[in-house]
Every structure is written in C-alpha cells, then in structure tokens.
C-alpha cells in the first residue's frame, strides 16, 4: 500500500504550546496510529507570538539576543533573527500580553512599545537593509509612540508612557526616527486591517482583551486621535494602522509597508510546494472559531491546501464552529481536545492531549498501518 504523506502545519496553541511544540505533538500522536506515514512538519505563525521561532525553524539564519525595555519599563530578553540582509523581529517579545501579570489593573494606559523600537534599532545597527516586524499579541495601545521615541522621535508630550502621556501633546518630530531607518526597507507583518482610531480602531476592537474597561475606551481613543493629529492623521486611516495597539501606525509613519503575516510565513516555509507534495494537510490552533477567517493560520493553511487540491483538517483545543462554518473556512473537519479528553487535561497536559487527538484523527484520515 502506498505511503500517505501528511503536511502538519499548526499555529501555536496560545498559552500552552508553541507552534513547533504543537507540530511535534501532532506528529507524535499520528505516528502512534500510522507509523508508516511520511510527516512533513511546518510550524506556522501569522506575525504574532512565535513568529521568529517559526521563521528560524524554516529559514535557519542567526539569532541574536538583545535586552530591551518591556511594557512597563522592565528589561527583558528578545531576539533578532538575521537571514542574509533581512532581519525579523517579533513585537510580542518586547510588548506581549505574556509580559503583563494583571490586565485588569489598567496598565495598558501606561504601557509602551519602546522595546519594539529598540529591537528595530538593533536590527538596523546590525546591518540589516530589510527589517520585518511581526505584529500581534501586544499588551500595548500607544499607537507605536514608544517605538518612534526609541528610534529618536521627540515631542512636547510624553511618548514612552502609553496613551496616558498624550494629554498635552501637540507636536511630534518624526524626522530623527525617519533618519534612523533611512535606506532600510521596513515591513509590518500583520493580518489586522483595522485603522488606528474610531469604531473599528485599535482601542475599541482590541482594548477590552488588554484590560481596557468600557468606560475608558472613548478617552483612550481620543488620546490616540490626538497623537495621530500631531503626526500623520492620514496614515492613521490606513489598513493595519490599528495592528498591535497601533504599532502598525508607528511603523507606517516610518514608511513601512504592510504584508499579511500569514502570507509572508507561507512563502517563507514554501507551504504551497509542500502541500502539493502531500496527500493531507493538518493545521490547528488553540480555539478554532469563525474569527479564524481574519488572517489566522488555519484559514491561511486551508487556502493553500485548497489551491493544491488537498483536503485540510484542523485540530484545536476547542472547536467553536459548526460544519457549515468550518467548510466556509476551507476545513473538511475539525477536532477538539476538550471534547476528547476534557478541559482539565487539555490544559494540564496539552502536548499529551494533542497527541492523543492526533492519534484519533489518524484513525479516520490515514491508511491503517495494520488491521
């Protein structure tokens, strides 16, 4: 019987497994049921947490560790991945949600993206002529003001203390920051297409998940509007300006162009070529729901599988869509760890639970090793 070829291309399972760990767990479980199958592991990311790790796995290159300023002034390690003349950095390493212990304490109002600017500076100082910044998973909402300040921007307000520092701000001089990155191609990798402010802006859309209370949304959004007026309000309306609490806007102010994060990673790992060589594509993420269509990994992987005329199935911590929505996302079937082993074990032993789920899925989708 011909060997079955399976491409394993999951995202991270947020809070429990990195994309690399998820791919390995799926492979371990799959081999338990179908040891003769050929597995091709392609961990994925969309620009958020795990972006640099996934690209390093796919592209190799040199990883340089630097120490940067986190959201509330702490010093934390972060990495710059150098591949040829291109440097890749991940904003979440400097301003991610995992760096904040208490989201309910209102810390987002004084949280800064300074560390992301320091990462970009380290990449430029290292000689990179192209810097790709992965956006996502941020605990900040400062419009990229901290990033701009770290690269040399000045103001009559305070740029490094989150939107709380914009109270009396009227002018921002971006020239020093723009000069700092002159001659460098900047790319913001994000699938978020929100503007900076307004009903669909960074604060209204993503603020609540960062601890912003409903009664504070209007005031914080007004602070970002004040910052935009002092810099380049036209750019604040661009798609992606609201990504990562407005980090997208800060990068747009420096002349960056936006690329969909999932598309960038798909190209980097040669996913289309690998899908064409497979018989089945397996993807996954922590929670598979209809928001997965908004530039998330499973939808991007499913699109690639469809283009290659290959079936795609998803493994997830939880599956929160029905079969109709699932197929609208390009996924044949989706399987839940919680449904198989329960919520407690899914969180206590995520790798083991995901491996068990993969073994169960292999029973349906793989040719049995023996009868």
Automatic annotation (TrEMBL):
InterPro entries the record matches: Glyc_kinase_flavodox-like_fold (IPR018193), Glycerate_kinase (IPR004381), Glycerate_kinase_RE-like (IPR018197), Glycerate_kinase_sf (IPR036129)
Transport as UniProt keyword: no
GO molecular function list: kinase activity
Domain of life: Bacteria
Keyword Kinase: yes
Pfam families according to UniProt: Gly_kinase
Keywords, alphabetical: Kinase, Transferase
Family: Belongs to the glycerate kinase type-1 family.
Name of the molecule in the record: Glycerate kinase
Species per Swiss-Prot/TrEMBL record: Nocardioides marinquilinus
């Amino acid at each position: 019987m011909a060997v079955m070829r399976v491409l394993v291309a999951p995202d991270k399972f947020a809070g429990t497994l990195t994309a690399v760990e998820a791919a390995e767990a799926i492979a371990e479980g799959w081999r338990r049921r179908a040891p003769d199958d050929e597995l091709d592991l392609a961990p994925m990311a969309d620009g958020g947490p795990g972006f640099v790790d996934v690209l390093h796995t796919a592209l190799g290159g040199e990883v340089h560790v630097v120490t940067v300023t986190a959201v509330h002034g702490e010093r934390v390690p972060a990495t710059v991945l150098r591949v040829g003349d291109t440097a890749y950095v991940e904003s979440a390493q400097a301003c991610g949600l995992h760096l904040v212990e208490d989201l309910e304490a209102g810390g987002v109002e004084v949280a800064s993206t300074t560390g992301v600017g320091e990462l970009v500076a380290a990449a430029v100082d290292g000689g990179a002529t192209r810097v790709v910044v992965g956006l996502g998973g941020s605990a900040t909402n400062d419009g990229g003001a901290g990033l701009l300040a770290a690269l040399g921007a000045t103001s009559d307000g305070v740029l490094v203390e989150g939107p709380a520092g914009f109270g009396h701000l009227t002018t921002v001089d971006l020239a020093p920051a723009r000069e700092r990155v002159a001659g460098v191609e900047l790319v913001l990798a994000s699938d978020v297409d929100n503007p900076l402010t307004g009903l669909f802006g960074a604060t209204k859309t993503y603020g609540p998940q960062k601890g912003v209370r409903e009664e504070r949304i209007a005031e914080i959004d007004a602070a970002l509007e004040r910052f935009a007026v002092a810099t380049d309000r036209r750019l604040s309306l661009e798609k992606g300006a609201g990504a990562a609490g407005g980090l997208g806007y800060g990068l747009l102010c420096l002349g960056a162009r936006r690329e969909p994060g999932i598309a960038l990673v798909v190209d980097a790992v040669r996913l289309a070529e690998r899908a064409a060589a497979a018989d089945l594509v397996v993807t996954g993420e922590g929670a598979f729901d209809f928001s997965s269509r908004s530039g998330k990994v499973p939808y991007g992987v499913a699109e690639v599988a469809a283009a290659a005329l290959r079936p795609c199935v998803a493994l997830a911590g939880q599956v929160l869509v029905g079969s109709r929505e699932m197929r609208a996302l390009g996924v044949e079937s989706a399987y839940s760890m919680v449904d198989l082993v329960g919520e407690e074990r899914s969180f206590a032993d995520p790798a083991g639970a995901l491996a068990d789920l993969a073994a169960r899925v292999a029973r349906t989708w793989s040719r049995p090793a023996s009868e």
